[in-house]
Amino acid sequence: MTVQETGAADAGGSSLHLDVRTNGVAVLTFDRPEVRNAVNWPLYQRLGDLLDEVARREKEIAVLVLRGEGGAFCAGGDISFMQQMFSGEIDKADVGALALKVFRAQTALPQPTIAVVDGPAIGLGCTLALGCDLVFASTRAVFADPHVQMGLVPGDGAALIWPLLVGPARAKEFLFTGDPLRGPEAERLGLVNRVYPPETVDDEAMAFAARLASGPPVAIRGAKSLVNIALRSLGEHVVPQGLTLESLSQESDYHRKAVEGFLSGSPLRF
Fold first, then answer.
1. CB 29 within 8 A of CB 50
2. Where are the domains of the chain?
3. What does pTM read for this prediction?
4. Do 122 and 74 meet the contact criterion of CB atoms below 8 Å apart?
5. Is the pLDDT reported for residue 6 higher than 70?
6. Can you tell me whether residue 111 is helix, strand or coil?
């Protein structure tokens, strides 16, 4: 049962919903299915605000589930978002500051988090999914970080999270190429926790969330806090440096040509 909903679509085009249920489970849903839940500037800002809200409501919210509507988790940054940064309409420094805020908020959130990935989780969407404490994927889930394919450094936290999950050598292979991993292979490599058929993955994730929500909150949150000490400490070194390098890569000719190619339907290949 849903007892409260916040974060409906706004005039700026963001669509992000937070449903808080009576069993202590909250569900944060990306709801831009027409663009595979790609992140635009209003949605990204709203995400930062809602993560802060979830942290403030820790007595009411025991577990947070992140999911996407319409057969995708999140396809990463909307290409219009990239255009706005490239043209200077949106200040890259503001985007970097928000990216750091979101990373810090997600990793410091007291409640355990579960990503439900049914379909693509790409770029920023992949980082947001893998930044959760647990990842439940469907057999049709696709994980990829194609920053390099757009001429960009993966500065949003991917260069920290991937090595911690699959080891440095495997992480470099996928971060250097942007090659995709499907759900079963991602489970085999340790990138995700569990894989289910598309028709059951939501129910399985919600059942596990309800189980955690009924558990001892002090113990579960303490365990999360301890495990995340290293992640948060490393993040304070890796993520700011990564965002600086990503900002520099946004000035490259390759990135400009990659954006132009994407818009014209002729993406660059290497």
1. no
2. 2-200+217-264
3. 0.93
4. yes
5. no
6. coil
Q: pLDDT of 89-129, one tens digit each? A: 999 899 999 999 999 999 999 999 999 999 999 999 999 99
CA distance 185 to 234: 27
Burial class (CB in 10 A: 0-12, 13-18, 19+), 13: middle
- Both tokens of 30, joined, read 């990306």
DSSP run (H or E) holding 135: strand 134-138
For 8-31, write each residue's pLDDT tens digit.
Answer: 444 344 589 999 999 999 999 999
Contacts of 214 (CB under 8 A, 6+ apart): 23, 24
Residue 125, Cβ neighbours under 10 Å: how many? 29
* Count, residues in the chain: 270
The token pair at 261 is 């190619």
Topology of 2-200+217-264 in CATH? Answer: 2-enoyl-CoA Hydratase; Chain A, domain 1 (3.90.226)
Residue 244, pLDDT above cutoff 60: yes
